[in-house]
Structure formats: C-alpha cells, structure tokens
Write a structure and sequence with these properties.
Blueprint (H helix, E strand, L loop, with lengths): L2 H10 L38 E5 L4 H12 L3 E6 L3 H13 L3 E6 L5 H15 L4 E4 L15 H22 L8 E5 L3 H4 L5 H21 L5 E7 L13 H5 L13 H12 L10 E4 L8
Parallel strand pairs: 1-2, 1-4, 2-3, 4-5, 5-6, 6-7
Helix pairs in contact: 2-3, 2-9, 4-5, 5-7
Length: 293
C-alpha cells in the first residue's frame, strides 16, 4: 500500500466494539471495514489456472488472499465454517476480478469434513496446486485457570487439527512444484499472555511447518508460513474486550494494526513459483517487530 494510505490508517484507528462469536463476522459487523483489496496491487498472472484451496477464506486475511489470488488468475476453493454471507461476498469479489470461486462450508477440525473439503475442491477443479491453511480461532483469558479443557481442545481442533487433516488429505493430490502455506503468528515467537491456547497452537504450527518441509522437500512440495502481527480482522472484536479493541495494534513499532491487504502479497509469493527455492521458512509481516528466531 502507498505510504500516504498508511499514514491515514495510523490516525484513524477503530472504535470500541465486540462480537459474541468465533471467529467473527466481517460484513456489517466490523468498524471500520478491514481493507482487503489494495488497488495498487496489480496481478501478473503468476498463479494463472492454478487451483488453490484456502481455509478460513471468507473474511480477514483469507478474504484479502482470495482477492489477490483472483488478480493472479488462480482458481479458488474457499473453505469456511458457517459464515455464509461473508463467504458469498468474498466469492463475488473473486468473480469481480474474473476468477472462479468454489465455496465449501464445514468444520475442518472434523477429519471427515476436512477430507470431503479437499475432495470437493479436486472434483470441481480437477486438480490441486496449492494449499493455504488459514482458518483459526482465538479466545481471551487473563488466567490459565480460566481456560477450560473444552476451550483448549476447541482451539487446537481448529488451528492445528484442521490444518493437519486438510494437509493430510491434500497430499494425495499435490504434485512436484506444489506449495503449502500456513498462517502462523507473531505470538508463536514472542508469546501472548491473554491468548495462551492460541499461541500454543501457532507454536505447534510453526514446528509442523518446519518438519513437514523437510519431510516433503524430496517430493518437490514446498511448505512455508506467514506470521502476521496485529492485523485488523473480525477475529479481533470477536476475541478482545472493547477497550483493548480500541487500542489494538497501537503498541506495534508502526503504531497501528496491519490491514489484510498488506498480508496478501506474502501469501502469493509463497504459493507461487516466485518462491521456488524457499521452503521451511516463515515470513514475518508484523509492523516492524524484530524477531530473531
């Protein structure tokens, strides 16, 4: 995004707000609306006719990635839980840029649902070239004793088992030259005192990314990750108290949260052949936080 656009974002901020559902709804519920389309991003056909399955593609970072994939002429299979209106909006955005988008709903934390998600994508498009594991949820807790076993299991079920189940099913279809991109997080590297279960899942996903990369490198399949810092998405008002939502992202070195559109190019780079000599790596897109690990 252009510097003058970024300066405007730094001064606007976001008002107090909250949502009582996970992982949150974008359309008509988040103020201001997250920026998912950067008009300065011009596609160059680097994903032309590639089939990409992205989980959690209905809103937030996932929506921005879907828009960028459409600009790069990819075919998109968008998996989401039950946010039907958000998913339909994202599909319309993909089609607006001349792309094709298949919507697949269901809880990928369930193994059979994850398998069917991959099967539907492959049946519809005839192949699978790239997988982006982006679906996630997080829950605010100031004390470890406030995290129930059910909540811990639910967070791992979505964030880790969902990625595991979908990736496992996708491996039957990915070929040499294919790519897997996992959404990890800055909190996997620096921790987060009020997102302990979420941080634990993202730490596990970093380890899985590195290990799976070594496991698949001889097969010509690359595995990498993107680690967002504070990014303005529906997940934020769905997770934090109102007062913290108002101040969200202001402690970053850039003094503001990122916008989904600022993350999308990193995913395109790792999904495309531009990163043909990159595997087992994580790109940190976090507003200037230096992490040496």
């Amino acid at each position: 995004m252009k510097y003058e656009d970024i300066q405007k974002l730094q001064t606007e901020g976001q008002p107090k707000q909250i949502q009582n559902r996970q992982p949150g709804v974008e359309d008509g519920e988040v103020t201001p609306m997250p920026i998912f389309d950067d008009p300065n991003y011009k596609g160059s056909g680097k994903m032309k006719d590639k089939v990409v399955l992205i989980t959690g593609g209905d809103s937030g970072i996932g929506r921005a990635v879907c828009v960028a994939l459409a600009k790069e002429e990819a075919k998109v299979a968008l998996a989401y839980r039950d946010e039907h209106d958000d998913a339909e909006t994202t599909k319309a955005l993909v089609e607006e840029y001349g792309g094709e988008c298949l919507l697949i709903d269901g809880d990928i934390g369930e193994e059979e649902t994850a398998k069917k998600t991959v099967e539907k994508a492959v049946k519809h498009f005839g192949r699978l070239d790239s997988l982006i594991n982006n679906a996630a949820e997080q829950h605010y807790a100031e004390d470890l004793r406030d995290i129930s076993s059910d909540q811990m299991e639910r967070t791992f079920k979505t964030n880790i088992f969902g990625a595991f189940h979908v990736t496992k099913a996708a491996l039957d279809h990915l070929q040499p030259g294919s790519s897997i991109v996992n959404s990890v997080s800055v909190v996997a590297y620096k921790g987060m005192p009020v997102l302990m279960d979420y941080a634990a899942t993202k730490g596990a996903l970093v380890a899985l990314t590195r290990s799976l990369s070594e496991n698949l490198v001889s097969k010509g399949i690359r595995v990498n990750g993107v680690a967002p810092g504070p990014v303005w998405t529906p997940l934020i008002p769905a997770s934090f108290p109102k007062e913290q939502v108002e101040q969200f992202g202001t402690s970053s070195p850039m003094g503001r949260p990122g916008q989904p559109a600022e993350l999308a190019p990193a995913y395109i780079y790792l999904a495309s052949d531009d990163s043909s000599f990159v595997s087992g790596e994580v790109i940190h897109v976090n507003g200037g936080q230096v992490l040496n690990n």
